[in-house]
Amino acid sequence: MSGHTPPTLQKLARQTLLRNEAMAIACLGELPTMLFPALFKEAFEGRHINLVKEMVAAWPFPCLPVGALMKTPNGETMKALLDGVDMRLTRKFHPRCLMTPLETFSVTCYIISQNELNSFSCCKSLFQLKHLELRGVILHDVDIMSLRGFLEKVADTLETLDLQCCRMKDSQLYALLPALRNFSQLTTVKFYSNKFSMPILKDLLQHTANWSTVNVEQYPAPLECYDDSAQVSVERFAQLCRELMDTLRAIRQPKNISFATEICYTCGERCVYHNGPRLCCCWQ
User: Fold this and answer.
1) For residue 83, how many other CB atoms are within 10 A of its CB?
2) 124 contacts: CB under 8 Å, gap ≥ 6
3) CA dist., res. 59 & res. 152, Å (int)
4) In angstroms, how far is CA 256 from the centroid of its own chain?
5) Tell me: the pLDDT tens digits for 167-199?
6) Do 174 and 201 meet the contact criterion of CB atoms below 8 Å apart?
7) What phi and psi values does residue 200 have, to the nearest 5 degrees?
8) Phi and psi dihedrals of 179, rounded to 5?
9) What one-character DSSP code corresponds to residue 8?
10) Which of 255, 281, 222 is nearest to 271 (CA)?
11) Where are the alpha helices (DSSP H) in the chain?
12) Count of beta carbons in the 10 Å neighbourhood of residue 140
């Protein structure tokens, strides 16, 4: 007897739908909910552009996690994803079920183009977003103003903002400040691994007086903590982070706040300042 395991009925159904994209799109209104995640993953990875767009528009869950699918940047697939999200506002696929705006949008480790950022920022079905994760989405070389406009639109609903490892610089954070200060529901904000100086970090903290609901705050240690060879100066790290902490406490009382250096290439850890400095293994 052969040890080969035959494909499941669900696998066969997905294969049939992917071979006939037009039929798959026509059947979305009757597609069992349990088939959506696996079929969407295979359609996305196979770059079935039209099916991806229609599946996003018909997505039956409040969260659409695409970060893990973004292994290699593809502008056409990203555009189809955003077009589908926007279509959710006017499409009805299930009897008694009008598609509602997404609550969570997550893209990680992605080199985003200016056009993609602009399209994302204009996507109306994201204007009631609660959780935005752009961790590892490289923003260093893009015009950030479209993201600022988007953040202004979700100021009354956003609860989580994760912009870690985006390689943002001072001028970009400065451009976002008018939007950041208006958040009223924010509970978690993460900025680790961005390249911000001491003055802009102080400016950011001084714009957070309204962040009374924030429980977790993570900021990068200022650039002034590093010497000319990009090594952490322990004394400056402790001094400057303590100064930033004092700046914030003069405005409001933070619940859980930390400042952290870049990850150490030797031990793989960060130096973190919470109630005091906690150094990476190389300094202990």
Assistant:
1) 18
2) 86, 89
3) 26
4) 20
5) 999 999 999 999 999 999 999 999 999 999 999
6) no
7) -75, -30
8) -80, -40
9) P
10) 281
11) 9-19, 21-27, 36-45, 49-57, 75-87, 114-121, 145-153, 170-180, 198-206, 234-249
12) 13
Q: Is 270 left (phi over 0), alpha (psi -120 to 50) or beta?
A: beta
Instruction: Please count the CA atoms within 13 angstroms of the CA of 250 that sit on its side-chain side.
Output: 10
pLDDT, tens digit (0-9, with 9 covering 90-100), for 224-279: 999 988 899 999 999 999 999 999 999 999 999 999 999 988 888 999 999 889 99
What letters, b where the CB count within 10 A reaches 16 and e where it falls short, cover 214-247?
beebbbbbbbebbeeeeebeeebbbebbeebbeb
Angle at 115 between CA 86 and CA 158, to 5 degrees: 50
Dihedral sign from CA coordinates of 52, 55, 56, 57:
positive
DSSP symbol at 223: G
Residue 182, token pair as written in the block: 């208006």
User: Bridge-partner residues for 106, per DSSP?
Assistant: 65, 133
